[in-house]
Amino acid sequence: MNPLFSLVSDRSHVLQTAFYPIFEALYKGKPLETLFTTMNEQYHSQLKRGSANAYALTSLVDLESQVQPTIDLFMDKLAELGENGKKPVDIATWALYFAFDGLGQINFSEDFGFLRSGSDVDNNIRTIDGLLAYLSIIGQAPWMHKLLLGNPLLQNILPLESSNQVQQFAIRIIEKRLNGKQPNAGRDILARFLEVSEKEDAKLNLEQIIALTTVNLIAGSDSTALGIRAILYYLCRNRDAYLKLQREIDEAFESGTLADPPQYAQASKLKYLDAVLVEGLRVHPATGFVLERTVPSGGATISGKFIPEGTIVGINSWVMHANKSVYGKDAESFRPERWLEADEQQLRNMKRYNMTVRLPSISIILINRRKGDMPDFELIFINLLG
User: Fold this and answer.
1) Per the structure, how many domains does the chain have?
2) Residue 375 to residue 84: CA distance in whole angstroms
3) What is the CATH number of the domain that holds 283?
4) Which of 216, 165, 167 is nearest to 188 (CA)?
5) What is the pTM for the complete model shown?
6) Domain containing residue 136
């Protein structure tokens, strides 16, 4: 494996840089450290132990029935606005509305109301977009953060904490749950965090639960929506791939391999669907940041060059995923077949250098169908975007 990739993907011997704490939100006037932002390895290990069960794929799959009504509402809205494929719809915006509401259900058994209202509730999306723009620029010169939003004086003047509506939503729901005012909540991610908080060996406190769930909403909504947008975009631009996928899905429904509504366990067996998902997220990864690390004590040799300790190094997933020595001469093209044609060694290498995380919800979104005379979900997108 490339030594630089090893440094970026392994936290056990290297430290994160000052880039990461900029992402920390405020709670009661203090920054909230998360799995992504903390530079304290001991604290990172504690958070990882405490949240591991909630983030396991088996746990997420258990929540399928909880998010299905949100998927149904999403599709109903698209069919209504697009008059069953006859009129164009801004799918990019509605995908983000779905992502927010879906993650609200998965984390808290309660959604934000984006899909029902068809709007940016409490300006959450606008606020996050502004925050990401700030992080993209100031993250390249972290020392500036201490003069700007990281300045205690500005934090006392500006409503930075109260204006974080996503975090305020998380706090409200957590307080409702703790006070017994959410009796019909399922065993969602919050419930699993609270279960852990009662165990002494891997205890999570209230601040940590607020931090973890808030990050789930902010980072998860963007990456989920971006994944849906990217995959649909490339399918619309590649008719052969679209037709192959449509044929595989139709045959799976006809044979009984897929139920209605489909389940992730069933969808994960569709080989071409799996290849489409992996390829779409490879060609258009959700993160454009360089994932920085500090070279550890003793330095490191990367691509034949010695890099002294303390040097900041990193990888951009867009560059890594366009590596022709890993993904072939057509690395910059969307071609799902590469994942099906590769031999065992090449497939192992492609997976090893793939820096994206695939979410079960994207699989289900692509193959949900409507009963009666309403067209297939994927056909709706082709009519809207093709």
Assistant:
1) 1
2) 7
3) 1.10.630.10
4) 216
5) 0.86
6) 3-385
